[in-house]
Amino acid sequence: MTRTLSDAERDAWLRLKLTPGVGDAGARKLLAAFGLPPALFAQPRAALAAVVGPALAERLLAEPEGWRELCERTRRWLDGDTRRQLLTLGDPDYPAELLQIEDPPLLLHLEGDPAALRHPLRLAMVGSRNPTAQGAEHARQFARALAEAGACIVSGLALGIDGAAHEGALEAGGCTVAVVGTGLDQVYPKKHQALAQRIAAQGALISEYLLGTPPLAPNFPRRNRLISGLSQGVLVVEAALQSGSLITARQAAEQGREVFAIPGSIHSPQSRGCHALIRQGAKLVESAADILEELRTQVPATATGQDQEPSGLTDPPGAAPGKHPVPDDPLLRVLGFEPCGLDALQARCGLDLPTLQARLLELEFDGWVARLPGGVYQRRARG
Same domain for 164 and 294? Predict the structure, then answer.
């Protein structure tokens, strides 16, 4: 159970975090030398200087700018919802896996259920913020199937693959954790406000950043180490070669986590990152069962509370028997899963243009076809 910090203890942790120049690594060094922050700040200048040097010792003895305002802001935030907590390195609820990574955060702000961070089977899902329709559907389907099988889905609340993965887990009634790159008193992107509230109700939101921290570009790649660090494996759904998702995959490999990737079209730039990972040794996956087969060698099946896999788990995305049987439609057969322009599709099927457009519209309304930018169409898998 989480140890409740006294006001003085919490304020001391915030002061240590806010002191300029110390950083999390320096803070850990000080904690190792002097114990918890209240004891640290009671040390004389000479003792502090012996550990971090005279310049930092001087800063530690001075009250950091904005500290009192931050303490009050944090107190009000914590008082605003019983699901909110501040986890410190000294807290028994601090995730043990993060203590093993190279740079564990000094503090974690949490909204939701801290038990989500101790879920026995956690898989991170990451990918493009601008996925193809098929990529977003894969993310949702995989997350739903994995959550039904007892896994907790960890992602970053970003647009695209992250949001689809969280949605899939929530649709299954499962657990999901969002590791965000801002203070927890604001949601980025703003359009995920409602999604964030649902995640807090069914899992947890966490952040290493102090309240009031806006969405700053350098913070998002940095938080990726927590996404991988909290998980037993990372699934990259769709990613370009320069995607931040590849940073998460690299960090996962460095942390000794499993790396999985879904292959895609050889013509799609959004698939090249996944193909590169597969060439480098990531496990190619076509179904949720491929991932569970690997992860359940690390976690006993009984730990997840799931003795049987849900129906359709071993089928590739799009098959999902018993849910949405694929219509035996000649147009779907010739369209395939590669993006296709209208002229090329007309040449394949032989239909006149008005008839073809009408059929595509019907299939789009039924959810079997996606219209992509530039007048391109793609068949969608449905679960």
Answer: yes
The model carries a pTM of: 0.80
Q: What is the reported pLDDT for 373?
A: 73
CA angle 121, 122, 126 (to 5 degrees): 150
Query: Residue 211 belongs to what H/E stretch?
Result: none
Residues 263 and 271 sit within 8 Å (Cβ to Cβ): yes
**Enclosing domain of residue 374:** 330-379
Strand partners, 179: 206
Blockwise average pLDDT, block size 10, the chain, 383 residues: 79 97 93 94 96 95 97 97 93 90 94 95 96 93 95 97 98 97 97 98 98 96 96 96 91 95 91 95 94 76 44 41 57 79 82 82 81 78 62
Q: What is the DSSP letter of 299?
A: S
CATH number at residue 293: 3.40.50.450
Per-residue model confidence (pLDDT) at position 107 = 96
Provide the number of structural domains found in the chain: 3
Calculate the alpha carbon distances from 306 to 122, 133, 252, 374 in Å: 14, 31, 26, 44
Residue 101 within any structural domain of the chain: no
Q: In 241-294, which ranges are E strands?
A: 258-261, 283-284
In a domain, 213, yes or no: no
Q: What is the CATH number of the domain that holds 364?
A: 1.10.10.10
Q: Which domain-ending residue is among 31, 50, 80?
A: 80
Query: Residue 118's Cα: distance from chain center in Å?
Result: 15
Q: How far apart are CA 151 and CA 376, in angstroms?
A: 35
Can you tell me the distance from the alpha carbon of 258 to that of 3, in angstroms, rounded to the nearest whole number? 32
End-to-end Cα separation, the chain, in angstroms: 39
Structural domain contains residue 42: yes
Strands 176-179 and 204-207: parallel
Is-cis flag, bond preceding 189, omega within 30? Answer: yes
pLDDT in the model for residue 2: 53
Phi, psi of 132 (to 5 degrees): -70, 165
| Structure tokens given for 324 | 């949405």
CA distance 156 to 178: 5
